[in-house]
Amino acid sequence: MKYVLVTGGVVSGLGKGVTASSIGLILKACGLRVTSIKIDPYLNTDAGTMSPFEHGEVFVLDDGGEVDLDLGNYERFLDIKLTRDNNITTGKIYQYVIDKERRGDYLGKTVQVVPHITDAIQEWIERAAMIPVDGKEGPADVCVIELGGTIGDIESMPFIEALGQFSYRVGEGNFCLIHVSLVPVLSVVGEQELDENVKAKLSQFCHVPDKNIITLYDVSNIWHVPLLLKDQKAHEAILKVLNLSCASKPELGEWTTRAKLCDSLHQPVRIAMVGKYTGLSDSYLSVLKYYCSFILGCASGEAILRCSIDDILVLSLEALLHASVACSRKLVIDWVLSSDLEEATAKENPDAYKAAWKLLKGADGVLVPGGFGDRGVQGKIMAAKYARENRIPYLGICLGMQIAVIEFARSVLGLQDANSTEFDPNTQSPCVIFMPEGSKTHMGGTMRLGSRRTYFHVTDCKAAKLYGNKSFIDERHRHRYEVNPDMVVQLEDAGLAFVGKDDSGRRMEIIELANHPYYVGVQFHPEFKSRPEKPSALFLGLIAAAGGQLDAILKKKGVIRASMSNGNSTMKSRQYGNGDKTSNWSSLGANAIYTNGNGVHC
């Protein structure tokens, strides 16, 4: 096994995750099998209980692991499926060591950071690196490890020591260090690009050959980052350090085409993302705006970004981007503050109320992502109602599906007090309830998590067609509440079709309105499995419907399905009605590659 370690200096948030993902991609393009590990030095066992404003969004894996968002980058870039063991935290390591101590595995020895914690880190890395993640048997050829945080942080020190020992233990030719750092310049001068003089200075003080110093400058979208590495022959430097040979140049033709296509799109598709926003500083919002315009492939200021949301953000954005590029549309996001749609805002802040409704009414499609808490829920319900009544394409994810069910019960069934017990525990019409197996006393790891199977109970529906007329699908979940199964028949009789259910048939997974251009809600999170080359089926449906392309997409998928099989379904179809610190990073190994992370702010 060969190991590539990516570290960061000066400041956090330089783009180590995108850099690590891009390195993995070009190595994979060289014909190597690649896996990834992310090290997060915080004491939490996992990211499940952390606020997205503390550490970004939570990414959910097939096995239910709640992990750092960078693992989502690894999966999307490399098209792999990682496990919870591919995310190492200080909490996991200390728990592992303490459990061994309680069992008496250390035979009465005094348990210390060195050697017990550092040994545990190395053991975990070796064990996780051997897990197949690409659908093939046997371990990968190369494991890309990203060390979170910044070199010099106190919490990172045990990992630095462990990785230093690890590089010595695996031996020369099996370990390559890549350090991502910031080369700052005054804004009036422009962005720093590393000319030969600057590279010579960095080489002298960092003891890295100047040919191994790579510049990663601002790019129009993150898909260009692997191309920057390839153009500067980063893969050749890495392969040389690892004593590996590449039979051919990395093949990134399809990737290059997609990156360039993203830049050239002009015909817009406007999606209103209706969410619960939180008060953030202007400086944070400016960073968010830059980041979103960066992933959307827009020049500064082109993306219409109003503010931040306390819901699924980056993952939904990337899934929308994958789908919009596949549909040859330029994605424009309008952030709609859900509470601004409510009647209370009309009285307290009429301008905000009018602006929010103007954005919603000007959108080609509406997305209500997942989230927690009751603030802004009424505004989300009003957005779902507007999309349903005005035949605007709508996609509700997790809470967004529950919102659609509540709105339908209120507006169509006339149950004015219909609600979720999450928001009103005493409601007489509980459309959404707490799952029986859930825990109300423990937060971490107690939700319904990971990949679960959904069976289509209706074959003649848009969702099934978008998935290629499969009889079942596997998607990732993260929720505590579900549609009340006791109200399903009543809702179905009124025209709300529950086209997808779990294996028991009592847990609702997909809703759809048959007489609507595109009105779909799902309990799972399809954004977790979206890939640049394989957009999420339901996000593709939303963008296609918003751009007037859905019929063509469904027809194309039907043709593809027919060519693969006879297309007959064994399931019964039902018809529904309407309704640097850099002081000690070099101690990790002499064979290092230094990259300028300026501009890769993801």
TrEMBL record:
Pathway(s) where this gene product acts: Pyrimidine metabolism; CTP biosynthesis via de novo pathway; CTP from UDP: step 2/2
InterPro entries noted in UniProt: Class_I_gatase-like (IPR029062), CTP_synthase (IPR004468), CTP_synthase_N (IPR017456), GATASE (IPR017926), GATase1_CTP_Synthase (IPR033828), P-loop_NTPase (IPR027417)
PROSITE patterns, A to Z: GATASE_TYPE_1 (PS51273)
Domain CTP synthase N-terminal residues, every copy: 2-192
E.C. numbers: 6.3.4.2
Record-level GO BP terms: 'de novo' CTP biosynthetic process; pyrimidine nucleobase biosynthetic process
Span of domain Glutamine amidotransferase: 320-543
Keywords associated with the record: ATP-binding, Glutamine amidotransferase, Ligase, Nucleotide-binding, Pyrimidine biosynthesis
Gene3D superfamilies documented for this protein: 3.40.50.880, P-loop containing nucleotide triphosphate hydrolases
Catalytic activity: UTP + L-glutamine + ATP + H2O = CTP + L-glutamate + ADP + phosphate + 2 H(+)
Enzyme kind, highest EC tier: ligase
Pfam family membership, one: CTP_synth_N
One MF annotation (Gene Ontology) recorded for this entry: identical protein binding
Family per similarity comment: Belongs to the CTP synthase family.
PANTHER family: CTP SYNTHASE
Its biological purpose: Catalyzes the ATP-dependent amination of UTP to CTP with either L-glutamine or ammonia as the source of nitrogen.
Protein name: CTP synthase
Native source species: Rhododendron simsii (Sims's rhododendron)
